[in-house]
Amino acid sequence: MSKAQFVALMAMLMAINALSIDIMLPGLQEIGASLGIADENHRQYVITAYLIGMGFAQLFFGPLSDRFGRKLPLLGGLAIYGVCALAIVFVPSFSGLLALRFVQGIGAAATRVISVSIVRDVYGGRQMAEVMSLVMMVFMVVPVIAPSIGQLIMLFAEWHMIFVVIALFAALVATLVILRLPETLAEENRRPFTATSIIGAFRIVLTNRMALFYTLATAFIFGSLFGFINSAQQILVGIYGLGVWFPLVFAGFAGMMAVASFTNSRMVKRYGMRRLSHGALIGFATVSLIWMVASLFGPVPLWLFVLLYGTAMFQFGLIGPNFNAMAMEPLGHVAGTASSVLGFTQTIGGAVLGAAIGQAFDGTVTPLALGFFILSAIGLGFVLIAEKGKLFSPNNPAS
User: Fold this and answer.
1) Which of 378, 79, 58, 389 is nearest to 219 (CA)?
2) What share of the chain is helix, strand, coil (3-state, %, to 5)?
3) Could you tell me the domains of the chain?
4) Which of 33, 119, 234, 261 is paired with 320 by a 20 to 30 Å CA distance?
5) What's the pLDDT at 281?
6) Which of 385, 368, 4 has the alpha carbon at shortest distance from 215?
7) What integer pLDDT is reported at residue 320 of this predicted model?
8) DSSP assignment of 31-49, as one string?
9) Alpha-carbon span 317 to 322, nearest angstrom
10) Residue burial 294-321, b: 16+ Cβ < 10 Å; e: rest
11) Average pLDDT per 10 consecutive residues for the chain, totaling 399 residues
12) DSSP 360
């Protein structure tokens, strides 16, 4: 595969998760109404159930891919994901939908863990950060277009058709994996699938200061993003009355992250992961503080909300790929298990924190702004622990 083809396929694998969340945002209200859920905050569980399933299953798919290679577990996960999407079309109750979304998340975990493992198999250091940035840039196209696709589907069909589209996308990606993706884990680098081996690999990950605390920092920053995703429809439609323009504004925010990821891919080789991501994290916390203070003085006008949140999302696009690359860098010898531990922590931690922010929605943007500031401040604390109190300085020329 060429580098462009490789990046595109890895982005499609990671985009499955963004598609599974963002395409249904315009349909949450109809899903709730169709299945008898009156509380708007409870409709957010459609997203949370998926994220929790995906988070826990990553602990399984990482060691599995270290033992059997990347392709077979990846295809198994895609099969689970696609079958559950089709099953949801016929689900009769909200509890049944949540159960299937949980299992669908389990299948999707393979795409999250194994795509990162494959990138680490092929690249390292700043090259990995560059490739992850390009993957994230393409991946961010999905949040740009997914709500619009969901809105378009809702104009011509019921919410069930959204899950048919999701299943078809999974089938397309699985076909490309079968036909185009080579196995990237050599036989001699595979680890035995035993309890002792798995526990040993987990110990390697959890006792590495750099990997552990960059993972925790990423989880808290992801928590703020999930908090917005959970309450995006309530904020943009309920507070600001955007109606059918909701997907367009949501796309603009995702576009900011895509631009940031592309910027990171162009600059990371010259300036390094730490200078870019540490500066972005400080900027993220500063913008969140301004947003929080502004929200305390009354309703935040739409133009200011868009400016502050859009700026925060640009910073997020510089944080995500670099933090992931720095967490994975010292763990190439256990890439699958490392990716699973990192992914589990980031997804479950982010999902729980995001759910807490979403459930705190009170008709204003204050809970979201407060959540952004608190989580970014804690994330900065984790980075300081990882770097022994010293920001911006690379540990080696490749970082």
Assistant:
1) 378
2) 85, 0, 15
3) 10-386 (1.20.1250.20)
4) 234
5) 94
6) 385
7) 82
8) HHHHTT---GGGGGHHHHH
9) 9
10) bbeeeebeeeebbebbbbbbbbbbbbbb
11) 86 86 82 82 85 85 86 95 94 92 94 85 76 72 77 88 94 94 84 74 80 90 86 85 80 80 81 89 95 90 91 88 81 70 81 88 89 94 90 61
12) T
The two counts, helices (H) then strands (E), for the chain are 15, 0
Q: If you count them, how many residues does the chain have?
A: 399
Among left, alpha and beta (phi > 0; psi -120 to 50; other), residue 241 is left
Token digits for 312?
A: 């925060």
Both tokens of 123, joined, read 């690249």
State both tokens at 227: 């908090």
The per-residue pLDDT for 397 is 47
How far, in Å, are 105, 188, 337, 386 from residue 69 at the CA level?
21, 11, 12, 31
Closest CA to 321 of 138, 145, 134: 134
Q: What is the pLDDT of residue 104?
A: 96
CA-wise closest residue to 319 among 133, 114, 113:
133
Residue 395: predicted pLDDT:
58
Residue type, 27: G
